[in-house]
Amino acid sequence: MSLLLRLASPALPISHRLLCSSLPPTTFLANSLLFAASSPRCLPSALSLYSLLSLSSPMSSPPLLRPNAFTYPLLFRAAPPTVALALATHSVKFLGAHAASCDRVLGPCCLTIASCRRVFDRIACPDLPAWNALLSAYMRCASSAADAILELFSRMISLGTVRPNEITLVAVIGACGELGALGHGVWAHTYLVKRQLAINRIVTTALVEMYAGCGRLDLAEHVFATASDRDTRCYNAMLQGLAAHGHGRAALDLFDRMRGSGVPVDGVTILSVLCSCAHAELVDEGLEYFDKMEIEFGIEPRIEHYGCVVDMLSRAGRLDDAEKLIHEMPIVPNAAIYRSLIRACDIHGNLELGERMITELRQHDPDDSGNHVLIANLYARMNRWEEAKKTRKEMKSMGIDKSPGSSLLDMNGVLHEFLVGDKTHPASKEIYTMVEEIEARLSEHGHRSSTTSVLFDVEEEDKADTLTYHSERLAIPFALIASDPGTPIRIIKNLRVCADCHESAKLVSRVYGREIVMRDRTRFHHFREGECSCGDFW
DNA sequence: CTAGGGTTAG
Questions:
Q1: B chain positions with any atom within 7 Å of a protein CB
Q2: How confident is the model at residue A270 (pLDDT cuts 50, 70, 90)?
Q3: A56 has pLDDT over 50
Q4: What is the rounded average pLDDT for all residues in chain A?
Q5: PPR repeats span which residues (predicted)?
Q6: pLDDT beyond 90 at A285
Q7: Per-residue pLDDT for A338 more than 80?
Q8: 3-state secondary structure of A231
Q9: For A168 and B4, how far is CA from C1' in angstroms?
Q10: Which residues on neighbouring strands pair with residue A408, listed in sequence order?
C-alpha cells in the first residue's frame, strides 16, 4: 500500500482522500503520502497533511495519527527555511526526548535542536518569530541548553535588527532559572518592566520559577502576589517553589487559597503539594491529600504521586509503610521509587530491606550510574566491603561514569563555575589557600571530615583529599574571598550535596557569619548561623 | 496581518 502511494504523487488529492477514509489510518500511511507530497511544488499539500497529523494527536483520544521521527524529514524536503524552522520546533515539541536518538538513526537531516539551529542559520535575516522559535526550541530541549539561550539572546541584542518581546524574554527567564543566574534574571525582569512588555500569566509563571530557582523565594512570592491573574500553572510554579525550599506549611496554605479562588487543581498541583509535605516532614497531611485526591479532586494517582508518597514515608523512617505501598500500588513501580527507598534504608540503617530493594532495582535499571553509587554506599554501610568493591568494579568495566560534580556561583551577575578538584580558575591559588584556612578554622570548632559519603566515589588513597575538593568546597572559599562581607553566597550544584559538605557549610555560615543559599539537585538549603533550613532532612 | 511562550516527584 505504501509503495503504491509513493507512486501516486500525481494523483495526490485521491490518495489524500484515501488516507481520510481508510480505517484506521496509520502514521506510516500518512508518512508515505507526505513522501509523495513533499517535492517542492507540493508544499501546501504536505502542510495540510501535516496539520492532519498534528491535529489528530495527541489531544484527540484515542490518538489516531501521531507524527513520528520519519514525518519531519519528509516535510523538510518541501519547506523553505522559515517554515522549516517552525516545523523543526514542532518536531522538538512532539518528539521530545526521543529527538536525540532519532537524529542518530536518520542522519543530520532534521529533528534535533542541532537541526533547528541549522535551519535557523540558513535564514539570512531572522525576524522576531524566527528568533523566538529557535529560543523556545532550545528551552524545550531535553539536555540543558540554558547557556546557549543566553548566548543567542546576547547575539540577538547586539545585532539589533529585531527587538525582543515578552515571548523572547520567557525563554531567557527560563534559562536564568535553570542556571540559577539571578543577576541575568533580574536584568530580564527589569527589561520587561522598562520596555512595558506584557506581564501576563505566562510571564508571571516564568518569573516565579526563575526567582524560586535562583533561591529568591521572597521575590518569587512578590511576583506571584502582585500578578493580576493566575491560572493553574502559575499556582503550580509557586507551589513547586515553596516545596523546593522546604516551606511545607506555606505551600499547604497556598493550596487552600487556590481551591478557594476557583482555579482548577490538576495532577501537577497535587504532586507539588505531596512534594511539599515530603520535604517538610508533614507525613500525615501528605497521606491525607494522597488518600482523597481521587475523590475530592477527581485526579487519579499516577506513578509520580506514588513515587512522592514512597519518598515521603521513607524519609520519615516509615520504611515498612513505604514497602507496603510499593507492593500494593496498582502501577508497576519504577526505578526511582526503589532508589528513594534504598537511600532511606541507608540513612535509617535498615540494611535487610535495602538489600531486598537492591535486587528489585537491579532488574529495573541496571545501567544507571546513580544506582551503582547508591548500591555501593549501602554495602559500605553494611561493612560488606567485598560487595562494595565488586559494585565499583562493575561500574568501571561497564564504562559507567558518574557525571562530575559542579557548582555555579553567581556573583554580582557574573557566573563562576567550579568542578570537582578544579584548578583552572584564575584565582585558583588563593582559593586553595583559603580552603586550608577554612579547614583549620572549622576543626577548631570541632568539625572533623567524615569520609563515608565519598568512600566509593574515589580511590582509597585520595579519600581525604577529594573531600576537600568537592566543587562547593571551592566555590564557597572563592565567594568568601571575592564577595562583599555580609552578602549571601549563592551556589547552584548539579548533584546532591553530600552529608559532609552539608555539615561544613553549616559551620562556615556560623564561623564566617555568611548566609549560604545552596540549590542542589533536588531542593534548596539555606545555611544560616550554623543551621540549615532543611533541618538535616533531605 | 500572524508567527513565537509558562508548571511535573526522586
A1: 3-10
A2: very high
A3: no
A4: 78
A5: 231-265
A6: yes
A7: yes
A8: coil
A9: 8
A10: A417, A492
**CB–CB of A100/A142 below 8 Å?**
yes
Q: Which of residues 338-397 of A touch strand B (CB under 7 A)?
A: 339-340, 343
> What are the Cα distances from residue A47, in Å, to A15, A37, A39, A51, A327?
15, 9, 12, 6, 49
The segment(s) of chain A belonging to CATH 1.25.40 are: 303-402
Report if CB A299 to strand B is under 7 Å: no
What are residue A518's DSSP bridge partners?
A491, A525
The set of cell numbers assigned to A381 is 554501610
Within 13 Å and on the Cβ side, how many CA atoms surround A469? 15
Nearest protein residue to nucleotide B7 (CA to C1' distance) is: A233
Cβ of A308 < 7 Å from strand B? yes
- Between CA A321 and C1' B10 the distance (Å) reads 17
For residues A341 and A323, the answer to whether their CB atoms sit within 8 Å is yes
CATH number of this structure's domain A303-402? 1.25.40
Share of chain A above pLDDT 90, in %: 37
Closest to A214 (Cα-Cα) out of A518, A522, A538:
A518
Q: Which three cell numbers stand for residue A433?
A: 589557600
Contact criterion met (CB below 8 Å) for A93 and A140: yes
Residues 462-521 of A with CB under 7 A from strand B: none
Q: Which three cell numbers stand for residue A362?
A: 537491579
**Band (A60; pLDDT cuts 50, 70, 90):** very low
Segment (H or E) for A499? helix A499-511
Q: Where are the alpha helices (DSSP H) in A56-165?
A: 71-78, 81-95, 99-106, 113-121, 128-140, 146-159
Q: Residue A252 in contact with residue A280, Cβ under 8 Å? A: no
CA of A411 to C1' of B8 (A): 30
Nearest residue: Cα versus C1' of B9 = A308
| Cβ–Cβ under 8 Å, residues A519 and A493 | yes
In the Cβ-directed half-sphere of A436, how many Cα atoms lie within 13 Å? 5
Condensed to tens digits (0 to 9), the pLDDT of residues A437-457 reads 888 888 887 776 654 444 444
Grid coordinates of A385: 566491603
The answer to whether A142 CB is within 7 Å of strand B is no
**By the 8 A CB rule, do A12 and A37 touch?**
yes
Higher pLDDT, A85 or A469: A469
